[in-house]
Design goal:
The complex is a heterodimer of chains A (906) and B (412). By secondary structure, chain A is α/β, with parallel strands linked by helices. Chain A has 24 helices and 14 strands. Helices cover 69% and strands 9% of the residues of chain A. Chain B has a six-stranded mixed sheet with strand order 4-3-2-1-13-14. A six-stranded mixed sheet of chain B has the order 5-6-7-10-12-11, with helices on one face. The chains are: A alpha/beta (906), B alpha/beta (412).
């Protein structure tokens, strides 16, 4: 790729700077200008052209004027003969376009140009601009870095030198684990700790074993203490027993001596207190009971006759006694029922008489039973309503007949003579007045005339009124007559309704002529009498029925017990029953008394008799048992009394011992055991007791010792329980082992990484170094005119491969380090740099190379050859040589045939 | 017939090697195991269990301390006083041969240990002495029982519910691959016995073996390390003849483990900024407000500009403490092994750089045995049986590590 035209609108110190086509060579371009003329800026312009503005924020080449933005444009010629135009501008955000073969891409923004992406911006920065400062820095160990950078990373400062990374990784891995004994790797420290913890683990296990033994010992101790606790009280009891047993034994021996005088102790103890008196008493008691029994048996025979006096007829009566008594209780009721029936029959007859009277009072015929239904069918309310209607109609009829004519002709009209008199008077006065000519007279005549006219008019009016009244009255009389006819018809209809209401009853016609409430009362009376008769009749029938049934039942019962029917038979049955019951009662009493007698005999007399006889027999037997083979009985009884006294003494002494020794039987058993024991220690003597006492004391002492030991063991066990457990230590062991495994794994991982990086470095070098070294050797040979024939990697004393320079055509070589001169090393570096650059973009777009004052310190020959070398390089890529020395600029231009670009800095 | 009430425990691992860097933590875990067992005993008494079943690994044989043994005997004694029998089928950690600890313990009379690998059938009785169920169990006699014990269990018969008790590894059970294959059996072995319930132990993950078989692993009673996460406890089972069981899980463990992976927050550019962001993430992942203690392991993942800081143990310790306080956890550990500095690997692949070559080697090595042989380090701290597999395992994440080391800070 070559820059054909360049236009810088604004970029740092450059403003409106343009390099037209023809001003720029496709090979070497020598840019010459004083300091701050913009040479380095031109390098930045080129870099921005290819890769954009970096850093966007605080871009260092932003013009000072606020309204002016960095803006550049260039026309490029590509390796494949295509042309491209690039425009970039940095406003608030970077903008950019690229036009390739006439097609414009306006989204370039701040991205790399598409045809420079084979080489990163960092790599370009690092390798494609070589400055004097880079050359000056090539002193001492810096060469190692250069070698790493150029050969290991092909000059990329994007990556750290592999050797540095390898050293770090190796160190880290060694800090974790080492196979040798050097250093203190983590695994070794962990192993030491593991060893410690394992020791603690062993100790803890041993402690656990010991504590278990202690626990076992403690268990044994407790068991022993329990046994001692059991034995000690026993021994103490034995001592106490021994102290008690000796006096006891003596008293028991006394008892045995007394027993020797008693033929049979058990029999003796069974003797009565006074055998002879007891013998006499029991005999008298037996005789008394015998006499009493005989008397009772005689009474029983007498009562047996009374018990058998009840006959079968009595039994029959007694069997129905409850029924007979019930009938007896009912006899009054039966009698009353009979009387009630008679009374009802009389009452019924009386009612029937009243009914007939009522019937006679309103019926045209005598009372017959079928009239009862008709009377019952009459509805009194309805009848009353119809009678009321009849009376209303009749009243209306009467009122119609008696209706007055209201318009009464009152007064006569005024007589006519009043007016005549007045007229005549007026005529008279007028005549007199005219005649006399007295005005007062004819004035009075006029007044009298007027009065006469007035009176005449009044009379006319009165007569007219009277005529009108007479007409209205005649009309009213006609109307009343019509009403009388209508009401007469209604009265007849109402009467017929009353007659209909009494249908079935032959009512006297006179009563129906003018029916009134009297008729209603008669009907009510008739109905009531009929109803009462009917009710009485029904009640009488029921009573008769009930009475008859009861008499039948009574008669059946009387027949069974052999008595006549009816109430008289019941009286007889009552008497017979009373007799039977009396006999039965006596028989029952006799039976009860017999039972009592037998019971008394069986329960009292006979047992008493038996007891008395047994008591006597018992006394005799006891005397015989206590005093065998002694006759007569009285003497034996005397001897028995003596034996009894001895036996009592034995018993009292034993009871006394019993009270004193509640466990007497145990003591006796103990005494027997001791007497029969073969072991001398058990014999109850003072020595034995002393031995037992000594044994108790020994046990007491042992118990104290064992208790102390048990307390110690408990304390030990409690102390161990609080210690770190075996499991906890095992956990720590496991944890440390895990940590060791982790550290080992981490070591192996780092070792693997180290190995991979080493392998990658070797592979990278093997892939890239030969070409780079070959090219660099060729460039160096040209620069040094064959003094140095080439470059190659040679192992140093540690076996590490280092860059070496071959003297002439070899085979001698020198390491690239002192005492090789600084200038020579600079030339090797340049050769190296050019070779790397060639290698990096070989087969790709070759990017412009910038060399900033790198030849300043070279001698004339070598700088001249370097210029010729640049001419060769310029045939494959565009080269910009930046210098502030015009002479050197011209020399290079002449040597390379390139273009000279002069920057004035204005 | 009344349902038989059983408390199914397994893998209590009293006195097992306890996880933890600090002594206090190991002691806490030891106490937690004991507390869980005590709680199980209290539960059985409170709910008037007909029996307590322990399906092996009650303790770790040689590690059982005297103190824990005494606690164990005391707890069994408490059950005895309440009239509750305890049936115990030893497992590989507490085998039942006479030379092992399980046989040396002076158990109370209510403890019945199946001290033979041959199945034994016993009655489970109620407080009136009436038999309410039959129980068949067998124990491991050694620490590496290889026989299929379940295969020799007799088939269920009779009117009573029949229960099996065994420490076994059922093929195909979830999490079985994390345990040694002792007394192995198949679902078919369990199904053929026709039991109404199988109380199993060995696999620490609580589960039913199959939806078709009433066989359950109770899981362990207390998680012992960060891989045994979640609530742990016992199964309360009420078994009736022929009726499917629905065990009720009763949490007993006072300590609950959590193991979570948390991506480094992209905006966490300082350690101070990292704490609130991580605390917020952890609050979503770890519920801690249930009255129990929560032990949390946090594995940070992904890329972070703080990778260098996070690699320092002292920084991790401070971060752990702050997150522990922020979350209210009983213990919290942060691991940052997987955290790398931000780097775009694709930008470096295919270039003319050593890194590109290294990445290409790492990519190829995963499937190229010869290449792995070539890049094998001269010395390995570990000597695994399958070295190639081990090296492949180590390759994981090395690409990021290589890039992080080769690319300088300012170019990332």
């Amino acid at each position: 790729m070559r820059i054909r035209e360049l236009k810088v609108t604004a970029f740092g110190a450059l403003h409106d700077f343009t390099l037209e086509e023809g001003q720029l060579a496709s090979g070497v371009n020598v840019v010459c200008g004083p300091n701050e003329a913009g040479k380095t800026t031109l390098l930045s312009v080129c870099r921005a052209l290819l890769y954009g503005f970096y850093p966007v924020k605080d871009f260092p080449y932003r013009p000072w004027h606020r309204d002016v933005y960095p803006e550049i444009e260039a026309a490029l010629a590509l390796e494949d003969a295509r042309s491209a135009v690039v425009w970039r501008k940095l406003m608030s955000a970077p903008q950019g376009t690229v036009t390739l073969d006439g097609e414009t891409y306006d989204d370039l923004r701040n991205r790399d140009l598409p045809f420079v992406q084979h080489l990163g911006r960092g790599l370009y920065d690092a390798l494609y601009s070589l400055t004097l400062a880079d050359m000056d820095a090539l002193e001492g160990e810096a060469w190692q870095d250069v070698e790493d950078r150029l050969l290991g990373g092909l000059g990329s400062d994007v990556l750290r030198p592999v050797s540095q990374v390898l050293a770090e990784v190796g160190k880290e891995a060694d800090s974790l684990w080492r196979s040798d004994n050097r250093g203190k790797p983590k695994c070794r420290e962990l192993a030491n700790r593991l060893s410690e913890v394992r020791s603690q683990y062993k100790e803890a296990r041993e402690k656990d074993r010991q504590v278990r033994e202690s626990a076992r010992e403690l268990g044994d101790l407790r068991e022993r203490l329990d046994r001692i606790a059991d034995e000690l009280p026993r021994l103490r009891a034995e001592i106490r027993q021994a102290e008690q047993l000796l006096p006891l034994k003596q008293r028991l021996e006394q008892i045995e001596q007394w027993r020797g005088s008693i033929p049979d102790e058990a029999a003796a103890l069974k003797l009565p207190d006074a055998p002879r008196a007891e013998l006499s008493r029991t005999r008298e008691a037996a005789e008394q009971q015998w006499h009493q029994l005989k008397s009772l048996l005689r009474d029983k025979d007498r009562l047996e006759n009374t018990r058998q006096a009840v006959t079968p007829e009595d039994e029959s009566l007694l069997a129905r006694a409850d029924e007979i008594r019930a009938w007896m209780r009912s006899s009054g009721r039966l009698q009353k029922e009979s009387e009630d029936i008679n009374h009802l029959e009389a009452e019924l007859e009386h009612r029937r008489g009243a009914l007939r009277e009522a019937a006679d009072d309103m019926l045209a015929r005598p009372w017959r039973p079928e009239f009862a239904r008709a009377a019952a069918a009459v509805a009194p309310a309805e009848l009353k309503g119809r009678i009321n209607r009849y009376q209303e109609r009749a009243d209306e009829h009467r009122m119609a007949a008696a209706q007055p004519v209201e318009e009464v002709l009152t007064g006569e009209p005024m007589p006519a003579w009043y007016a005549v008199v007045a007229g005549l008077t007026a005529g008279a006065l007028l005549v007199v007045g005219v005649v006399v000519g007295v005005s007062g007279l004819w004035g009075a005549g006029i007044v009298a005339l007027l009065l006469a006219l007035l009176l005449w008019m009044v009379r006319w009016h009165q007569r007219r009124q009277r005529e009108l009244l007479q007409e209205r009255r005649a009309e009213r009389l006609r109307q009343i007559e019509r009403q009388q006819v209508e009401t007469a018809v209604q009265v007849e209809e109402a009467r017929q309704a009353v007659t209909d209401a009494l249908a079935g009853l032959p009512v006297v016609p006179a009563l129906l002529e003018k029916p009134d409430l009297g008729l209603l009362q008669k009907v009510e009376k008739l109905r009531g009498a009929a109803r009462e008769c009917d009710s009485l009749q029904q009640r009488l029938e029921q009573m008769r029925q009930h009475h008859s049934e009861e008499l039948d039942a009574l008669n059946a019962l009387l027949q069974e017990v052999g008595c006549p029917a009816g109430l008289p038979g019941l009286d007889q049955a009552e008497r017979l029953l009373a007799d039977a019951e009396e006999r039965q009662r006596k028989a029952d009493d006799a039976a009860e008394r017999i039972v009592q007698i037998l019971d008394e005999a069986r329960r009292k007399v006979v047992p008493e008799l038996r007891r008395a006889r047994q008591a006597r027999g018992d006394v005799i037997r006891r005397i015989r048992a206590a005093v065998p083979r002694m006759e007569p009985l009285e003497e034996a009884a005397e001897r028995a009394a003596e034996i009894r006294k001895l036996a009592d003494r034995v018993r009292e002494t034993e009871e006394e011992l019993q009270r004193e020794h509640p466990d007497l039987e145990d003591l006796k058993a103990e005494l027997r055991r001791l007497d029969s024991a073969e072991d001398e220690t058990l014999s109850m003597d003072v020595e034995t007791v002393e031995r037992i006492r000594q044994r108790a004391e020994d046990l007491q002492e042992e118990r104290q010792q064992k208790a102390v030991r048990a307390a110690e063991l408990e304390k030990d066990i409690a102390a161990v329980l609080g210690d770190v457990s075996v499991a906890e230590l095992r956990g720590e062991i496991v944890r440390i082992e895990e940590e060791i495994a982790d550290a080992q794994r981490q070591h192996d991982r780092l070792a693997l990484l180290e190995s991979i990086l080493r392998c990658a470095d070797a592979q990278f070098r093997s892939e890239h170094q030969p070409d780079v070294l070959k090219r660099a050797g060729r460039y160096l040979r040209e620069i040094t005119q064959g003094r140095y024939g080439g470059l190659q990697m040679m192992p140093d004393e540690d076996g590490v491969e280092r860059l070496a320079v071959i003297l002439g055509d070899g085979p001698q070589w020198r390491s690239v380090e002192e005492p090789l001169s600084g200038g020579t090393r600079n030339q090797i570096y340049l050769a190296f740099r050019l070779a790397v650059v060639d290698h990096l973009d070989e087969g790709q777009e070759r990017l412009p190379l910038f060399l900033d004052e790198v030849f300043v310190n070279w001698d004339s020959d070598r700088s001249g050859r370097a210029a010729q070398l640049l001419a060769a390089v310029g045939r494959t890529r565009q080269v910009f040589v930046l210098t502030c020395h015009p002479q050197w600029a011209r020399r290079v231009r002449e040597a390379t045939g390139g273009a000279l670009i002069e920057l004035t800095g204005a | 017939m009344e349902a038989v009430r059983l408390l199914h425990l397994a893998d209590c691992h009293l006195d097992t090697p306890f996880y933890g860097r600090e002594k206090e933590m190991r002691r806490r875990l030891r106490d937690a195991c004991r507390e869980a067992f005590r709680a199980a005993v209290d539960l059985a008494i409170e709910r008037r269990a007909h029996a307590v079943l322990i399906a092996g690994d009650l303790f770790d044989d040689e590690l059982l301390s005297f103190a824990t043994e005494r606690l164990l005997v005391d707890c069994c004694g408490a059950l005895h006083e309440s009239g509750i029998p305890l049936f115990y089928a030893p497992g590989n950690h507490d085998p039942g041969r006479a030379t092992y600890r399980a046989r040396k313990i002076e158990w109370p009379p209510n403890v019945h240990m199946f001290a033979s690998s041959n199945p034994e059938t016993v009655d489970i009785r109620d407080s009136d002495g009436q038999t309410v169920a039959r129980l068949t169990g067998a124990g491991h006699m050694t620490q590496a029982e290889s026989q299929n014990l379940a295969g020799s269990f007799p088939a269920a018969n009779g009117e009573l519910a029949h229960v099996g008790l065994l420490h076994t590894q059922v093929t195909g059970a979830r999490g079985a691959d994390q345990h040694d294959r002792y007394a192995p059996c198949t679902e078919g072995d369990l199904r053929e016995a026709g039991y109404d319930y199988w109380a199993l132990g060995h696999v620490h993950l609580r589960q039913t073996v199959s939806e078709q078989i009433p066989a359950w692993y109770a899981g362990n009673t207390q998680g012992r390390h960060p891989r045994e996460t979640g609530p742990k406890g016992a199964l309360w089972v009420e078994v009736e003849k022929g009726i499917p069981v629905e065990p009720e899980f009763v949490p007993l463990a006072p300590v609950v483990w959590h193991s979570v992976e948390v991506p480094c927050p992209p905006d966490g550019t300082t350690m101070a900024a990292l704490v609130p962001a991580l605390t917020a993430s952890l609050r979503e992942l770890v519920p801690v407000e249930d009255g129990r203690e929560h032990f949390v392991r946090v594995d940070l993942t992904g890329q972070s500009p703080l990778a260098g800081d996070l690699a320092l143990p002292e920084n991790l310790e401070v971060l752990s403490d702050e997150l522990q306080d922020g979350l209210g956890a009983g213990w919290l550990e942060v691991r940052s092994d997987s955290v790398v500095r931000p780097v775009d690997l694709d930008a470096y692949r295919g270039g003319r750089t050593v890194l590109a070559t290294a990445l290409e080697i790492i990519d190829r090595a995963d499937s190229d045995d010869a290449l792995i042989e070539r890049i094998r380090p001269e010395e390995l701290a570990n000597a695994p049986e399958d070295e190639l597999a081990y090296l492949r395992e180590l390759l994981a994440g090395l690409d990021l590590e290589a890039a992080a080391r080769l690319v300088p800070e300012e170019h990332r």
